[in-house]
Amino acid sequence: MLDHDSPAAHRRSKVGTAPKRIAIGRQRRVRPTRLLTAVTMTSRKNPAADKPHTPPDLHGNAPDKCEVALLLVDVVNDFDYEGGDQLLKAAQPAAEALADLKKRAERADVPCIYANDNFGRWRSDFGAQIRHVREDGTRGAKIAELLAPDECDYFVLKPKHSAFYQTCLGLLLEHLGVKTLLIGGWSTDSCVTFSANDAYLRGFGVHVLSDGAAAQTRAAHIMALEQMQRVIHARTPRCGDVSFVRGKQATSVRLRS
């Protein structure tokens, strides 16, 4: 009989027993020294590896290339708030002007981007917003029908007034190669102004469509347009005065004088 306390018993125990494995979630351990070595080797083989890499497009989701884009701010809107009925009256003719411009932009392959408020619906997406406005009997149903987005259009949901604040709009415009923005929507003295200001700060040419934007009062609309003309040097053409000119390299905007 083998003595369990003998050296031979201890040796047999070590040989016949599998080591215990301790599971640490699903994480992989990476040794810092190996990671550093891999980076160093890559840098030696390809000197350009140290430079930041910019993909040609957003993984195929932003295939268009155009120096001009149409930005529609809060046009999918239920107008279900204080002052919404006054804004709706001014927005209806503005929506008709925008719809005509949007059709001409599509024919010229100019991208259209919807920047829409989530109206406090943090668990919804843009599709849910459209269904709510069009199917729930809201005041803005007719305008939502008139300016319904197409499959080729882009959209961003914005949490605040500006279309740029905490959204991917800046990155999208960079990949599209946009230099000039045609901005319409409502209201002129709030979200349109904030979006135009942020566009100007980022170096874009800013055209605010005077008859493609609306505010609760005519006076507020005119005052906002004049302020953007004066402060950020925005041009304020009518939608009918905008034409798209296709060149060999890019599409540009021409304004009727």
Characterise the protein shown here.
There is one protein chain. This protein is α/β, with parallel strands linked by helices and 257 residues long. The protein has one domain: 3-Layer(aba) Sandwich (Rossmann fold). It is built from eight helices and seven strands. It has helices at residues 7-16, 32-45, 84-107, 126-135, 141-146, 169-176, 188-201, 218-231; strands at 68-73, 112-117, 154-158, 180-186, 205-214, 242-246, 251-255. The strands form two sheets. The protein has a five-stranded parallel sheet with strand order 3-2-1-4-5. The protein has a two-stranded antiparallel ribbon with strand order 6-7. Strand 6 and strand 7 (251-255) form a beta hairpin. Helix 7 (188-201) packs parallel to helix 8 (218-231). It is globular and about 45 Å long.
CATH topology tier name = Rossmann fold
CATH class: Alpha Beta
**Considering the protein shown, what is the CATH homologous superfamily?**
Isochorismatase-like
Radius of gyration: 28 Å
The rounded distance between the terminal residues' Cα atoms is: 110 Å
Largest sheet: 5 strands, parallel
How many helices in DSSP terms? Answer: 8
**Sequence of secondary-structure elements:** HHEHEHHEHEHEHEE
Estimated share of beta-strand residues: 15-25%
Low-confidence stretches: 9-53
Tell the overall outline. Answer: globular
Give the count of structural domains: 1
Mean pLDDT: 81
Structural class estimated from helices and strands: alpha/beta
DSSP strand tally: 7
